[in-house]
Amino acid sequence: MADTPVKSPTRAFRPGNSVLDSVAYAMQNRDKFIADSIAMRYLRVPDAAMRAEYADSVFARELYHGYGFLDLHSRSKSRVMEGHNRPSRDPWVIVLIIAMLLYTAILNLALGKDVSNVFASFYSKRVLSIAGKEESPVSSWAFLGLFLLFCATFGLFLYQLAAYKGVYYKIAGSGLFTFLTIVIIVLFSLKFLILKFLGFVFDINKLVTEYLNILHLTYFNIAFVFLPVVICFSLLGAQYIPVLLTVTLIIIIVIFIWQYIRSSVNIISTFRFHKFYLFTYLCALEICPVLILIKALNIKI
Predict the structure, then answer these.
(1) Helices then strands (H, E): number in the chain?
(2) I need a labelling partner for 264 at 20 to 30 A (CA). Which of 9, 31, 239, 247 fits?
(3) For residues 122 and 259, is the Cβ–Cβ distance under 8 A?
(4) Local structure of residue 273 (DSSP, 8 states)
C-alpha cells in the first residue's frame, strides 16, 4: 500500500485580521484626523459657530464695558517720582574766574620779577632775608595788584562757601561778591594801618615794616592758593567739595607754619617783650578777624 503525503492545513487570509495591519490602520486614521482638524481649523472656511465664538472672545477682551469712560486713567510712560533738587551755579562766576586768570597773567607779564619773588619766598631764604629788612621784596605796584588779587579770590571763596552751605543774605549774586571783596579790603587795610600806628607809638617802625613784608608775602602766596581753589569750587560736584575744603585748609596751615610763623617769630624775637603780648597780638589781629568775618557771614565750618 502506497504512503499518502501529509497535507498541511491551509489558512485562509482575511483582510484586517492581522494585528500589525490594525495598528497601521489606526495610525493612518489618526494622521488623517489630525490633518483634517488642521485643515478645518486653518485652511477651510470656518462655520458660523466658530466665527461667533471668535467674535465673542474678541469683544470680551477688547470691548469697553465701563461707565461713560469715566473709570479710564491715562497711562504715563514714565513714573512720577520724588526728584532731587539740582543746585545751579551762577554763570557770572565763570566769567569772573576767567577775568581773574587774565588779570594774573597780566601781572605776571608786567611784574614778573615781583611775582617770582612771591613764589620764591616760600622756599628761598634769600628772599626771606630781603623781606626781613626794611626794603620790600615787591614793588608798590606789585603790592597793590597782588593785594587786589588776594582780596578778590578770598571774597569769591567766601561767596562760594556761603552758597555751598546754603546761607542767604539780603544781597546775592555779584552784589554779594562785591560786598565781600570791599569788606576784606577794608579789614586788611585797617589791620596794616593799625600795625603801622603801633609801630609809631612804640617806636618799633623797623620791626613792624619787616613783619609787614613777611605778612604780605604770606597773603600773596595764599592768593595763588585761592585761585585754583575757586576754579575747582565752580567745576567740581558737591560731593567733592568737602575734600577740596580739607585740602585747602591743610595748604593754608602749611603756608602759615612754614612761612609766616617761622619768619615772623625770628623777627619778633629780636625785640624782647613778654610772650603774653605776642599771644594777644596773634589773637587780636591775625586769628580773630578771620573768625569774626566767618561768624558774621553765618557760615558753619
Answers:
(1) 12, 0
(2) 247
(3) yes
(4) -
Question: Count of CB atoms within 10 A of residue 287's CB?
Answer: 10
Q: State the Cα–Cα distance between residues 218 and 145, nearest whole angstrom.
A: 15
Domain positions in the chain are: 91-271
Residue 16 predicted with pLDDT over 50: no
The DSSP result for 61-98, as a single string, is HHS--SSTTTT--PPPSS------------HHHHHHHH
Q: Are 248 and 229 in contact (CB under 8 A)?
A: yes
Q: Which residues are CB-neighbours of 234 under 8 A, at least 6 positions away?
A: 89, 93, 94, 97, 160
The CA angle 264-269-273, to the nearest 5 degrees, is 120
pLDDT in tens, 185-201: 998 888 888 888 877 87
**Using an 8 Å Cβ cutoff, are 214 and 220 in contact?**
no
% of the chain beyond a pLDDT of 70: 60
Q: pLDDT digits over 67-105, tens only? A: 656 666 666 556 666 666 666 677 889 999 999 999 999
The verdict on pTM exceeding 0.70 is: no
What are residue 85's phi and psi, to 5 degrees? -70, 120
What is the distance between the alpha carbons of residues 142 and 176, in angstroms, rounded to a whole number? 27
